[in-house]
Amino acid sequence: MFRPSCLILFVLSVCLQPAAAREPDATWAYKTIEGADKPLEMAVFLPADYQTGKRFPVMVWFHGGSWNAGDPNWHYPDCRYWSRRGMVAVSVGYRLRDRDGVQVPRECVADAKAAISHLRRNASELKIDPDRIVAAGDSAGGLLAAATAMIPGEQAAEVADCEPNAIVLTSPWFRTAKPFSPPEHIRADLPPVITFLGDEDQGIPVESLLVWDQEYRTAGNDSELHIGKGGKHGFCNGRNPRNPFFYWSVELTDRFLVRHGILSGSSVVQIPDGVEHLLDAVPIAAGSRLVFIGDSITDMNWGRNEKDRNHYLGHSFVFMLAGRLGLDSPELELDFYNRGKSGNTVAQLRQRWQQDAIDMRPDVLTILIGTNDVGKGVSPQAYERDYRHILQQSRSANPELKIVMLDPFVLKSGAFANNDAAWQQRRAATDALRPIVAKLAKEFGATHIETQAAFDRAVAMAPAEHWIWDGVHPLPQGHELIAREWLKAMGL
Question: Can you tell me the distance from the alpha carbon of 77 to that of 64, in angstroms, rounded to the nearest whole number?
């Protein structure tokens, strides 16, 4: 099993320049092909301190192109970043269908395995740490990256020592014959994987990678899935230096590699002026006080007595977050408080805001409110008015307060499952509040979590009643979903 390490992220002012003119520092041959004019090669970008005596982690990129096109230079922008980050970064050339007259993806998989094996077998000479090898790929190259760990030898040439220690996938194309499709080969003890997909990818349904992520986890492995809103196929491409998805995916991958012990220290991503920031993570300082406030979804029978350590957090997503961060980052010594109250509307939050929000002096304040406003017929105008009022109060009390705002949500389960009219009315009323949350989050500089969208995606994996038993209140797995969305938004 692969155990995550703790993450404390500091962003430095080193600029990531995907359009820089820097070319590869070397070319390494990794496989001889009978009858070919020259061996297969990988373009190599070396870290600045490569001449020292230490060993370096390595990032291995496989380009896309349907195993019939593409070029290693497509991932030079990625390699430039990872070499700056202190890795040996390589972009692999492999055989293609028409150019080389080979069967795909079989021979492509064999080449990918050979590339990883070459690096590990020659680790000492190449100054590589054989226990910190990352396989990464885009589109068809994503299949190759995953295949190095997952496709058995009988499906492609048996290659020893070819399993990487972590996997990075962007828009991975798994649609091929089952013997070569990684989702068909999920098992226990696979490397941790991080996967990126655009929600407007015309070739890869979001639902298919939701299933991939869930099954990978169910087998006991570590998996992260990130969905880019508005992203199309190949959306993490770094060849366009103004592509915000490139910086977003690189930053998240950096954090992922730190958590899994491949890297340490600080990200070196800096987004150029004028490029949209898609990842607005909220840094959490050691000793921070985290307050969660809302209705019954947050409440979940917390004990109203912090001295009673058996019950002081209840059993909602707040409890799950306290457990996860207490285990993964004990050095942060975070202090968690639950101030959810069953039945509350935003107007009722307003009534107790001074005592339960401002006087608590939080460093991070998380708000989830709205389902009772819908149920009690509160108008969107009143909801916005009272919500803005409490946010103004908190901002005035602490201009540096980090605020996290979650969308209200509903699923077609419980009483709504067999009552279409009631369901449509409830969903429409809930949807009417979500743009208000988004607008206020932008207005007050808060982090916005699209909880309804997350639950809608989850329904592709399992029916609504698996997540929320009565349309409103999540079951444990629903609270786990909320907790994971919160962690993603916070960059944890």
Answer: 15
Residues 6+ positions from 256 with CB-CB distance below 8 Å: 166, 168, 192, 194, 224
d(CA 292, CA 315): 13
3-state secondary structure of 244: helix
Please state the rounded mean pLDDT for residues 229-237: 93
pTM of the model: 0.66
445 in helix, strand or coil?
A: coil
Structure tokens at 104: 């795909």
Contact 254, 269 (CB under 8 A): yes
Superfamily of domain 26-259: Alpha/Beta hydrolase fold, catalytic domain (3.40.50.1820)
Distance CA 258, CA 266 (A): 9
Per the omega criterion (within 30 degrees of 0), is the bond before 105 cis? yes
DSSP state of 272: P
CATH architecture of 289-489: 3-Layer(aba) Sandwich (3.40)
Give the model confidence (pLDDT) of 160-172 as tens digits: 789 999 999 999 9
Kind and range of the H or E element at 405?
strand 402-406
Taking only the tens place, the pLDDT of each residue in 406-425 is: 999 999 999 999 999 999 99
* Closest residue by Cα to residue 458 from 172, 269, 226, 211: 211
Instruction: Decide if 160 contacts 132 (C-beta within 8 A).
Output: no
For 258-279, write each residue's pLDDT tens digit.
889 999 887 899 899 999 887 6
Cβ neighbors of 191 (< 8 A, separation 6 or more) are 2, 149, 163, 164, 165, 166, 167, 221
The ranges assigned to domains in the chain are 26-259, 289-489
